[in-house]
Amino acid sequence: xxxxxxxxxxxxxxxxxxxxxxxxxxxxxxxxxxxxxxxxxxxxxxxxxxxxxxxxxxxxxxxxxxxxxxxxxxxxxxxxxxxxxxxxxxxxxxxxxxxxxxxxxxxxxxxxxxxxxxxxxxxxxxxxxxxxxxxxxxxxxxxxxxxxxxxxxxxxxxxxxxxxxxxxxxxxxxxxxxxxxxxxxxxxxxxxxxxxxxxxxxxxxxxxxxxxxxxxxxxxxxxxxxxxxxxxxxxxxxxxxxxxxxxxxxxxxxxxxxxxxxxxxxxxxxxxxxxxxxxxxxxxxxxxxxxxxxxxxxxxxxxxxxxxxxxxxxxxxxxxxxxxxxxxxxxxxxxxxxxxxxxxxxxxxxxxxxxxxxxxxxxxxxxxxxxxxxxxxxxxxxxxxxxxxxxxxxxxxxxxxxxxxxxxxxxxxxxxxxxxxxxxxxxxx
Length: 429
Fold this sequence. Notes:
mainly beta, Jelly Rolls, Immunoglobulin-like, 3 domains, 44% strand
């Protein structure tokens, strides 16, 4: 697992030395060659006076890009004057000011001009459309070690019926410190966990509204976490409307991590897709991937745990995680939530338990089970069914746990407190 840190830009053959691309006279970017492509008649990029100097961007000039009605959704401009760029740990977050009258995805891509199939692209959506400037942040830290020599800007990633005039400015490469050190821990979208601060790119979803991290809409059932991810599948989006992140870093499936579970909360019963992508193991420019679809069955506002078996991919390496929450052609917008993405092996390690560390009662239990311990450390509870599938997880349990969501049957309850872990059988009636 690679440590997810932030990037540095080492410049090889240009006088550009990590200063802001500011399009000012005597600054950086104005005298560069900017090629417009995939944009109908490909009108040239124009450097003109800043149309709004009263807000967050007071610079004198900015770049103007006209995304034409006849252009592709990915109409773009690129420059090779950026020089040779290697992503390392010293310089990190790429930021750019945009001024737009429509809310659509904005992409920055770095690529190898001799091999355009070797690239790294991040998309973010602007939200300000009233004529003010907005700063967008693009995290390229997962590209550490890669070298590129072309920077591509896609300012208006959308199929359009009329020309869109937009501006961009102040492209900067900033230090941001270490983001996290992720090693396939649960993606829980909590402020102190993993996922909430990651870059999630939405695609194939019409205007591609951003993935939202919101309060958990139902904390009374199988998922009591504070926050969750909210994905709106738009009526105009493709059936495979998706969101993906590269912040999982590079990982290899093993027998210990190939069973992936995810909590979902949906109002319709459709397939949920989980997909992993990775580099060609033979060194080619393509990618390998594995996609699994599991239908949800609960549609009454409760959470449901889905299990995705990637054991066929053991030994293969991936670096992107894709979630397709609502695999269906739809006649209206669907709001979906997902949470608690866990990597495991579907079985339980029952060794090295301190069996007297925590007491659990009554047993059998109905609706509520209680715990007692002499320690003041937080008590974390995980419950699996007899097939090893996780069905409930709670953090910082004080005493009583509501288990009314569990069907009658035999379960294994794992209780973790500090360095002690105890697993005991529980009969629910």
